[in-house]
Amino acid sequence: MEVWIRQSMAYRVGDTPMPTPVPGSMWDKPWGRELYGDRMKFIRRVDELGFDGLIFTEHHQGPNGGLTPSPIVMMAAASQVTEHIKLATMGIQLALYPHPTRVAEELAMIDNLSNGRLVVGLISTGAPGMYAFNLPADQERGRYHESYDLIVKAWTEPEPFEWDSTYFHYDEVSILPRPLQTPHPVVWTTCSSEQSIQWAAQHHIRLLAPGVTTQTADILNYYRDYAQRECGWTPQAEHLGMAREFYIAPTMRKLEETVDEILKLEQVYGWNFSGRPTRYTELAKVHASERTYDYGHHLGRPQGGGRNESGFTGGQFLCGDPDAITEQVLEQWEECGKPGVLVIRPELGHMSLQDVGDHMELFAKEVMPTLHKLS
Question: What residues are paired with 328 via a beta bridge?
Fold first, then answer.
């Protein structure tokens, strides 16, 4: 099993919840420069610790992920301070990009800059992204899927070609550079609706499943079954992943001394849903109306347990000392059908990147060797 780290890259100042959207007046230039400098040191450190992948997300205007509106820019920088770790997006919100061919070009550049370590993760655009770029909710899926088809053809078609679809029109497409990987970089997505899971299976796109353990298992089982039954192929371990919140401490006693305070501060530094614009809700309703979740044991849209007690009991929040974390992962790995990738999100509360790196070093020494043996 591979272990990937999902970065949060939040922007926070002060000791009160950040508003959404964050006004430009709250951007502290010296602090922002320091945050990016510390991030590059962290990226170098996790590469040296032997983690398999590092995820760069895409967020706009809000504090959660506020330092990474462009995963492409961050990956380009990371390609120059790392040597081994896979550089993954999870994900690029394709519906927001007016020219998919430009995305294809820039990702091909990163694949070359990183010597073939690029992993492309794509996601649907949620309400914050649609709000930030004034994207009509009823266009999101069509733009996303057309963009994907165009990008793959741009990566793989050896000769210039014409493209004419609902949203994109080009007299001639011929990108440079070409991706280093053949036929193109591996593509992942994370999703939970029937329609999105089916689309992923139809296109052999690998799937990272969210939710508590029972929901993660339902999502991956449905993906496997649909791929076999309707698409004529069988997903293997390397096509499957599970995403988890995460906190590790050297001992359970140390965990008890620290975790409550860190989780309390997470509410301060995390996403402030109470301050979001009303338009978010309207966009989310239109977006959700096109999706169904009629599969598995728990019908309805999967709800992650989050970084709290319900997340811990449901398996969404891995929390404990190295032995406890190892036991939790092994149990979930079996229950979810032995996926090949575990994604953890270790940045919590007021933890500095030095603190997070120390926790990742503990995990790398005490837990990761056992997980790397799983197959």
Answer: none
